[in-house]
Amino acid sequence: MAAPFQMPTLWLNVEVDAEQLICEVAHSTDLQNQYDAARQRPTRESAHGRERRREQCRVSQKTFRERKKKEQEDFELSVQVLENKVRDLEERKAQLIRSLPLQYVLAAQPDFDGGAPAKLARKYINVFKTGYVPSKRRAGERQERFLRAIADEDINYNGAIGIQCILDNWSRYTSSFSAINIEAFRCDVMKTDDGAIVKGVTRSTLKMNRQSIELFFPNCPDTLKPRLIGQNLIVVATMHWSFDEHDRLVQLTGRGDFTSGLLTILQSPEDVAMVLTRSRIVPAQLPPPSSSPRPGKLNVEYLQT
Prior knowledge:
The chain has ten helices and six strands. It is α+β, with helices and mostly antiparallel strands. It folds into two domains: 50-99; 112-276, Roll (Nuclear Transport Factor 2, Chain: A). α9 (258-266) crosses α10. Mean pLDDT is 80; it is low at 283-305. It comes from Aphanomyces stellatus.
């Protein structure tokens, strides 16, 4: 009987060494630590790279914002410089216009809009478009400030003297009619040198009531009053604004055509004549001249609103 096969001793030793090596590798703490460190190293490097890129991004954004801020500041400064130059040129232009007759101004600038005086006249109509009510303090104070900014304290208003005369007349009209609305048809400069004169044509819509009839038309027959109460009286008026050499308002006159408006309502010249008999549509002489010093140059702030 043949003897059983026996594995060579060398092979057995190799097999034992391999198993031992595998066991040592599997239970080696150093190798495990090295393996873990090798796995974590890319993560740490990636985190560091991301943080570095974030920092670079923050620096770039800050630099960009600072550059844009500087560009904005330079732009605003340039705009301010240009605005100052335009303002100086406008003032120089206004000075030249004040020294030239209107015909020469129109020859040099055919589309001349009247300059500061015409703008002030239009602004005046707009400010008092719906009348003047002193009890409405905010609106009333704004209207009074406007007048005192553009007009001489001793302004001549239809023969009366002083800014208060204008305010009193507006208050009288506003409180006497149920509603009032004024619009400008046109405002034309009639004269530019040595003090401008502006001629304006306005259209006023006045809603009549018993108080307005008794105040302005005290001799109106009782039989005609019902035909007037509640009606809108249309009054077309011609106004003249006179300015001094500094474009400050020194005289204001106006005359309204009540006859045509009443004729439209009553349809009878005889009835209109009876209503207008001894009417009070022309303002009375009011306060004497003020002794306060005259203001200086025109406040042009109101031309920009």
